[in-house]
Amino acid sequence: MGKYLLGFVARRDGSSKFGPLNRYGNFFSYSGGWRMSEEKFMQNISWLDDLKIRAAYGENGNNAIPADLYLDRYTLSGYVNYSSYDLNGTNNSAFTGAGLYQLGNPYIHWETNKTTNIGFDAALFHNKMTISFSWFNRITKDLLAVPPITGLRGDALAPFENIMEFSNKGIELELGYRNHIGAVSYDMNFNIATYRNNVNYISNDSTAHIDGNAYAPTAFSLTRSVVGMPVSTFFGYVQEGIFQSANEYTQNGVTHPGLSAATAAGHFRFKDINGDKKINDDDRTFLGNPHPKFSYGYNLNLNYKNFDLGIFLQGVAGNKIFNYWRAYSVFPGAQGEGANNTWSTTNTGAKLPIWNNIASSDATPSSFFIEDGSYLRLKSLQIGYTLSPKKAFNRIRIYLQGYNLATFTKYTGIDPEISTGSATNIGVDFGGNYPISKKFVFGVNFGL
Q: What confidence score (pLDDT) does residue 67 get?
């Protein structure tokens, strides 16, 4: 093992997804380590077998966007209004024309991820215990995404831009231990990580915030990213309960869109954030953070004579999920479990609004749809038995392994492990996610 470790990597990547102005990107990585346990002043520490201090900085580029977005894109389909014209002047025959489909941006360039990592690795007590600790700061610079666009620019889709910089700063700790108790030998590993996400910068070419995708049935975006807060923070109204009567609506004194004293009973009551006695866009606020406070995992392997057992647990804690699919799965008229728990004069403690179509505002993004996304999952469980050596084989092992056997969570959706693939829609559950499947595997290993 070397006492001093150094590494350097330089890359120059090119992508045809970017225009001639910004086709290439340069990315560099550096790393260094010092194995302190090899120094003379560390030799007399009997319980320390290995200690290495390390630091690294690395860059990599991202071009995960559709091709040719640096050019204006046109279409012959009917997507674009007024793209056909009656060239013959007969008033009954139109020739299909080309219309602008999406605006191009010749200045888009590589999105860059810059990661700094400082930590140490140690082995103690004759290598029975291992410790690995890291502090990291990952900065995503020039995020490639589509910002809000003013209607003055026409019907075409907005162009991709390098619109935002955000950081993930945190720590990781991994502990390992192996030993035996009589005939039972074991080794286990536990890891935990926590990070804080923060928007550092938003391009001057876009607005003071970046909204996520708009979702039906209300065409509101569910997230908003602003400088100084986490990316994809949930955004909407604060739901304060359900109006129980016309008198309650009148005493509340806050005008709700689509409601009156005569129709308010059974519909959601929202908080008047700015105190102007009416509910409108100015009353939307930040509702929750999709980023977990920490994530963790635990792995245990046990061996007793010819038997072996392996367990792997994984989970996250402290994150929220915007379960907007509830507007379709449990709202009045839906067929999902719990859809019948709607408000009525004989069911005033219901969680869902009354069964009618008077107020579409019930489905507007609000704290009603925010849920705890914490979970603990039994990712893997394996049981095996090794047979005595045979003439043809020196080892035969039979095993049964199960995957995703149990998930412990308060989340009411299909799966708390949500992924949209979009940095500005993290933690949004709008259906389309397949339930995680259980899997069982039976196998035999032969050793010659």
A: 87
Residue 135, both tokens? 């502090």
Q: Cβ–Cβ contacts within 10 Å for residue 102, how many?
A: 19
Dump pLDDT digits (tens) for 348-371: 999 899 887 666 789 899 999 999
DSSP β-bridge partners for residue 22: none
Q: Are 245 and 265 in contact (CB under 8 A)?
A: yes
Rounded-to-10 torsion of CA 102, 103, 108, 113: -40
Distance CA 15, CA 27 (A): 14
CB-CB contact of 438 with 403 (8 Å):
yes
Lowest-pLDDT range of 46-50, 104-108, 211-215, 285-289: 211-215
Mean pLDDT estimate for the chain: 89
Task: Report the alpha-carbon distance of residue 305 to residue 257 in Å, rounded.
Answer: 71
Joined together, the tokens standing for residue 204 give: 């001057």
Phi, psi of 436 (to 5 degrees): -70, 135
Euclidean distance between CA atoms 201 and 308, whole angstroms: 52
- Alpha-helical runs (H) found in 301-349: 326-329
94 — pLDDT class (breaks 50, 70, 90):
low
**Spatial distance between the Cα atoms of 131 and 143, rounded to a whole number of angstroms:** 34
Q: Cα separation of 275 and 319, whole Å? A: 30
Closest by Cα among 33, 34, 26 to 9: 26
Instruction: Tell which residue, 261, 239, 247, 241, has the closest CA to residue 350.
Output: 241
Dmax of the chain from CA atoms? 99
In sequence order, what DSSP letters do the residues of 236-285 get, joined into one string? EB-EEEE--SHHHHHHH--B-TT--TTT-TTSEEE--TT-SSB-SGGG-E
